[in-house]
Amino acid sequence: MHDPRLLLDVLSLLLAAVVIVPVFQRLRVPAVLGYLVAGALLGPHTPGPVVDVELPQLLSEFGVVFLLFAIGLELPLSRLRAMRRYIFGLGLMQVLLTSAAIGGAALALGESAAAALVIGGMLAFSSTATVLKLLVERGETVARFGRISVAVLIFQDLAVVPLLALLPLLAGGDTSIPEALALAAAKAVGAVGVIMLLGRFVVRPAYQFVASAKSPEVFTAANLFVVLAVGWLTAEAGMSMALGAFLAGMLLADTAFRHQVEADIEPFRGLLLGLFFMTVGMTLDLPAMVARADDILALTAALLAGKSILLFALCRLSGLGLATALRVGLLLSQGGEFAFVLVGKATGLAVLDAETGLLLSSSVALSMAVTPLIGLLAHRLAQAIEARLGAEAFGIETNDLKGHVLIAGYGRVGRAIARLLMDHNIPFVALDLDPQRVARARADGLPVYYGDSSQVGVLRAAGIERARAAVITVNRPEMAERALDSIRRTARSVTIVARAHDLERGAALTRAGATAVVPETIEASLQMASLVLRSAGVEAEAVDRSLKAVRDRGYADLAERPGDESQDSAA
């Protein structure tokens, strides 16, 4: 290492994150705030070590890129269509009206038109990471208010893209806001068209080729290349890399490779995004924040109250019940992590001054910190309303996959299981690592995806935590055991049925946590015996009882004894 100072800076960043973030998570405080505090402690405004912000700032920009890519992966066109009423209805109205209300207030307080537009836009967004974490922890992502909250968050994520593209145009100074908006929209439409064409005729065939190599590291390299290459193309076109990354994610959202891509990109996204928030924390002037504590508290209270009231009213106008509207309004009242992104870019482009940026960042951070308490308040208020006025419909939305069967391996056995599940109208999701097999199934409209069922990230993306059962059909013992271990660690109570070649391997899978194991060779011999007995005139009911007795004893009567193998060979 030529520069020991650089190594010391890296060690300081890692140590601060490793020590502080877990403490915040243990206290049930969003990890984003832990990264902000860790960065503030290493910044120039606090006593102790000071880290040079240049290198982490360079790397942290890729955190935003990977975040937008991951959001794009979650937005296939089919999902947008299924939730279009709340995404493009309630979500659109929330962003427009909240932006207009906050922007108008900023304009009345003396901000320029460009600054007011940016302030209104950034404070209209809520924290996707914080809200989703709360919903997942409480198992409320499938509740009606949870699905509506997610729909609004989806539109907010979509709205970030044009706002990021708009910032450089607003910084020009001589461009009017309507012209800037029109130019940003035109560039976005053009970029979407070009990238969609590239995706259909270049990216998807390329992924088929890369997946056929069956090399995990090559597949990961392809993911990184696509994200960065598309981001570079949009940057060269005068837009942000984040926009390109978002479009790249949407390209792959409807493909069979989506779950594996999501799992591969997750470590990069988490690490670089954490680094981004640490660099934001380094810029926070804590003494100045203390000096303006009254302003920060007032702005935070106004933000939480104003957004809650507005969204509550919109939910009621959309026909939602009182308890549902209250929970959605309170749950989405905070500022979002994209505010830090926008503040950094806007101050860098001189659209906002540093003092205003500090005030906004501080208020957003505080609003995120109190979100768990607000979520608890919303829960209790909703329960009180329902107890008095009657329960509302918090049922599962039809587009939310729940109670399905996960099939690990879509070979001949996996296909047979899938066919029987379809005959009984039981939903399923299948994972396989053969791209040709997956492509054929996808062409038939089946929910079969390219993905490694031994990776926890892939399993979660396929909804293992909401599944009623998992079936492991892969014919390689080591892969089956890894898949079983990952499924059991991710969903402890799910029923797992595993395929094994023989009794010895079946015993290993049982010890590893399988609920039931089917030894393939033994079952084949039982089926042959059944046919022989039936042909000999034994009644079908008696044959079934015999087979059941053998299975109930765990196939113990058929276990191999010393010398059995040689006797078979002699025969």
UniProtKB/TrEMBL annotation:
Signal peptide: none annotated. InterPro entries: Cation/H_exchanger_TM, K/H_exchanger, Na+/solute_symporter_sf, NAD(P)-bd_dom_sf, RCK_N. It is a multi-pass membrane protein. Keywords: Antiport, Ion transport, Membrane, Potassium, Potassium transport, Transmembrane, Transmembrane helix, Transport. The chain crosses the membrane at residues 6-24, 29-46, 58-75, 87-109, 115-136, 148-169, 181-203, 269-290, 296-317, 329-352, 358-378. Residues 402-519 form the RCK N-terminal domain. It is found in: Membrane. Belongs to the monovalent cation:proton antiporter 2 (CPA2) transporter (TC 2.A.37) family. This is CPA2 family monovalent cation:H+ antiporter-2. It comes from Azospirillum rugosum.
